[in-house]
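Repro:
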Amino acid sequence: MTAGEWRGRELGVRTVSWDERDAILYALAVGASADDLDLVFEERLRVLPTFALTLAQWAPDALGSQGAFDVRTAVHGAQRLRVLAPLPPTGTLELRARVGDVWDKGSAAVFDVVVESDAFVATWALFAPGCGGFGGDRGPSSSRRPDGEPDVRTQVATAANQATLYRLLGDRHHMHVDPEAARAAGQPKPFLHGLATLAATTLRIAGELGAHPADLTELDGRFSAPVFPGDRLEVAAWRDGPATTFEVTSGDRPAITGGRVRFG
């Protein structure tokens, strides 16, 4: 079965539940501080919209477990989130998952896994080495870096234990904690989940823009290079009407490109 034949495959329906403890743990794992009371204190809790992505992690995992690609070498290439309604501190939600487009990159394939619900629509782009060459479309090109100086420059300091903490939210792929698994994935040591980096960045951008991070309505980002726990990241952002375009670098390496976020 070629990679292209997975297009349109249904991945199932799952009902997920969470409570305020899960939402608070998530906020802490992506960089919220003890002073962010409406993110970490149950009496006034607002749930970060990116928490939804932990509830849907089963979907990209399901595609890998069905044999579409080698789970030891496939990596998360990009993420999209569209928020339809806020998540309450405690709740239950039905999620429906399917394979969207499958792009042919030559030596690799990119599988889009789409998860839909009444509260959000999210798309994982999974880069799978060795699965390309099936004669499919290469897909859209990467977004260009905006011209001109950024409107915002800021930093995100990742924590040394951030990957091990984020794993407790459901993404327990070994490459984020086990050095041997990280080397099998082509990295020198365990690296941070792309979604943790993306969420931590949106927290910082929201603060710089005077927005509340729980008001996020749209988010996109392409993971260009790994981030290692403890890295200090540089964030550049450009206002673009109601949205903000951004990129993240770690040292001299672009970590997130084509970033776009919208609040409210």
